[in-house]
UniProtKB/TrEMBL annotation:
Signal peptide: none
Pfam families reported in the protein's UniProt record: CSS-motif, EAL
TM regions (residue ranges): 7-30, 237-258
EC number(s) from the headed UniProt entry: 3.1.4.52
UniProt main location, coarse: membrane
Protein name: cyclic-guanylate-specific phosphodiesterase
Amino acid sequence: MSRLRVIIGGTVLAVLAAAVPIAVMVYATWDRAVSVEQQRLHAIAERSLRRTEVSYQEALAALKSAEATVLPACGAEHIQRMQTLVMTTPSSDQMGYFEGGKLRCTSWGPFLRDVDQPTPDHVTSDGVGITVDVRPEAAGRRPMLSIMYGSYDVLVDPRRFVDVIVDPDVRLALASPDGRLLTQQDGMDPTLLQKLLREPGEGLDRDTLYASARSGEWLAIATAPRTALAATFRQQAWLFVPLGLLMAAAGAGLVIWLSRRRLSMRGELRIAIRRRELYLHYQPIIELDTGICVGAEALVRWQRPDGTQVRPDLFIPLAEEAGMIAAITDLVIENVVADMRELLAEDRSAHIAINLAAEDISSGRALKVISQRMAGSGILPQQIWLEATEHGFLDIDRARTMLAAARRAGHSVAIDDFGVGYSSLQYLQQLPLDALKIDKSFIDAIGTESATSPVTPHIIGMARELGLWVVAEGVETEAQLAYLHSQHVQFGQGWLFSRPLPRDEFIAFHRKRQQQYGAAREHMQNPRSVPFEREQAGEE
């Protein structure tokens, strides 16, 4: 990548780094405003429930008192008693006495017309019947709520149940727990109200913010227009937007700093390759059934003269962009042969995996370098395992040719970091492969609720169907190891077994594992216990 492209890319990223935090903070401000308003509506709905419960208990107390009265039915004393109860019960407008399913008298006096006792629309846990939309003549045919207990009922103006002091833009409704509407204030959206009666909750639709509260006997719904969010949004903005501006400034500054460092790092890397500041660590690969170390993945490291380490995820992409990756591949191959020739000659079942870049796959030159370096070293071709990520298979025709040549030469080939790209299945079907390495992100998801957790067994099953060996990357816990055992995964690597080791430490680790677990492997009696051995005859 040219210096101009780095500068342009850095500028674009700096703008994004400034814009994204501000956008995130604006969204967070809006989300917080919605949350605050929903909490306000929920509190109002809770107040409405409490008001309803008070009114209901007042009416129920009056009904129980009437039911306990022993007076001649509908006599003067009886009617006066009902009048007294109505006058001392703020929520009651009228009390009635029923006998034989007919209204005999009310707190207004004897009732001579033939009026049936109403059928309850809802029965509470107290055994109290509630009937909606009763229209008595004494109330001017205005809709009333009948609360019935025993032989008596009281009529209540349903508006009293939602008679709560709230902001002018808030509207309330009251229903039974099963969604039967008892009363509502004017101005509520009927479509939204019906939806909330079926599915109470909190939310925001195109025009209205809403919340609900529920008790054992009642359901209260509160709504407010979307415009009510404006004032709350402005209030919350004073908290969130300044933080977004600070984050934007920090993000833009970080991108500028990284861009400048990237520009300067290019020259450093070129010098580091020339001065051979790059070296290798070896990540052990463990045969899971036996526990022995069957080899390692060679990992390149860079230490500056001042002792500071540069992460591979920084300098490897830079080397690919700057055309220096071939030199790094050559250095890795040279060091693997120099470091491991004694161990690989001593243990023919061991192998070392070398990562190839996209350029190595496309050009095929890495095979010639490996062949030249191996000549006279005593290392067998099957002891060098070649790994490539999906990025290296962009030109799939060239990749197929190169990998087929590698396998004819005796090397085993694996696809690295499997599952993180978009065309993994395509590569498995079209390329000559021996193994796949499951990316660490899928191993981390084992035993979790992560969205990638169900994918892991499918990857393992797919590899098994295609006859590929499976290596699990990034194994860090015993639970992960137990799961991989249950899925019959053959190999694993990760910090549960060992961190990446310098040459001498890895050789000691390998020999110690051989002594500890070698006997277990002999008892396996598995003709393919050596990783990735293949019959060479008949392969393309």
